[in-house]
Design a protein that fits this description.
By secondary structure, the protein is an alpha+beta fold. The protein contains 16 helices and seven strands. The strands form two sheets. It has a five-stranded antiparallel β-sheet with strand order 1-5-4-3-2. α5 packs across α16, α6 runs antiparallel to α10 and α6 runs antiparallel to α13. The termini are far apart.
Length: about 325
């Protein structure tokens, strides 16, 4: 299959499409699809070596699949079709998962807005779907990196680790596929330190990598069982489990508790009050039982956030210690 005709002659997508071993498919979603918002949640900050968007709207992902590393390019055509190209040993697996990645297993029809900001965001974003990657470790490692630090620190660590220890993505050498489980286990302590990752977070990642196969089984479980499976690993709590299952399973009810900002945003958007804690947030989200994560996504898209009263947390760097 040839690349989208809208691609520039010297663009990365044309160069990658000529790579030996490229495979392709087209799939037509039977409902509105906002590709950027649906898949963009998988991006881990600016400069993510495993995720890239192009000016033409195409999305690139580098993943380590059960069949090996692979690179996937998605583009929305004027016909409404999603055009996919994939490279590497994991190409067939990635192409098979395109519908789920674009939200085909999501059920937004089960959602009923109960608050004006949620209703307005739902109306303005009819193409928002919840992506399902079918990959646990891929989301778990960056989620652990985001524990108890600023987003900038976590994104920087992810970039450093993939650039230093990942491998070139098939068909897109400018991107990186994260290490396999053994690669994470074998990383020496000084490499974690060089990436600004403390011992608590690195130990949690190593423990998870050692039982990666068992963790990947969570993609076939219901939310409660999947969350319990992940939380068997010391260092992985409800916050991390929810962040992972939102992406790996497309879990519509995986509400993130223990977050520094989310309760305040939810409380302010739905009531105008400040100082909302987790318990109060869960009370406010009770009418959305079964769809609480979707409600939170829409609240974040509503733009109703409390005005900032305090300076941002300073970005730390344990590499200086």
């Amino acid at each position: 299959m040839s690349p989208s005709p809208s691609a520039a002659p010297d663009s990365p997508e044309r160069g990658a499409a000529r790579t030996a071993g490229a495979r392709g498919r087209r799939w037509t979603p039977p409902w509105p699809l906002d590709l950027a918002r649906t898949v963009g949640v998988l991006r881990r900050g600016p400069g993510d070596p495993a995720f890239r968007t192009e000016p033409d709207g195409s999305v690139w992902r580098a993943s380590r699949t059960p069949l090996g590393p692979g690179t996937l390019r998605l583009a929305r055509l004027r016909t409404g079709e999603v055009e996919a190209h994939a490279w590497g040993p994991g190409a067939a697996w990635l192409l098979d998962g395109v519908p789920a990645l674009c939200g085909a297993e999501d059920e937004p029809e089960r959602f009923t807005p109960r608050h004006r900001p949620v209703y307005e965001a739902h109306r303005r974003h009819p193409g928002l779907r919840l992506a399902r990657t079918g990959l646990v470790l891929e989301s778990l490692i960056p989620s652990v990196l985001e524990q108890k630090v600023t987003s900038d620190e976590a994104y920087r660590a992810w970039r450093i680790l993939l650039r230093r220890h990942g491998e070139p993505a098939p068909g897109a050498g400018h991107m990186r596929v994260m290490p396999d489980p053994r690669g994470w286990v074998m990383l020496p302590s000084w490499e974690w330190h060089a990436a600004g990752v403390d011992g608590k977070r690195s130990a949690a990642i190593v423990r998870a990598a050692r039982v990666a196969r068992r963790l990947e089984e969570a993609t076939a479980m219901d939310l409660a069982a999947a969350s319990a499976r992940l939380q068997l690993i010391p260092g992985i709590g409800p916050w991390t489990a929810a962040e992972v299952l939102q992406r790996s399973n497309g879990a519509a009810d995986a509400v993130t508790v223990g977050d520094l900002h989310l309760p305040g945003i939810v409380g302010y958007a739905l009531t105008g009050a400040r100082g909302t804690d987790d318990a109060r947030m869960l009370e406010l989200l009770a009418p959305y039982a079964g769809q609480r994560h979707r409600a939170c996504r829409l609240i974040l898209l509503s733009g109703r956030v409390p005005p900032r009263r305090a300076p941002r947390f300073p970005v730390g760097d344990i590499r200086r210690l």
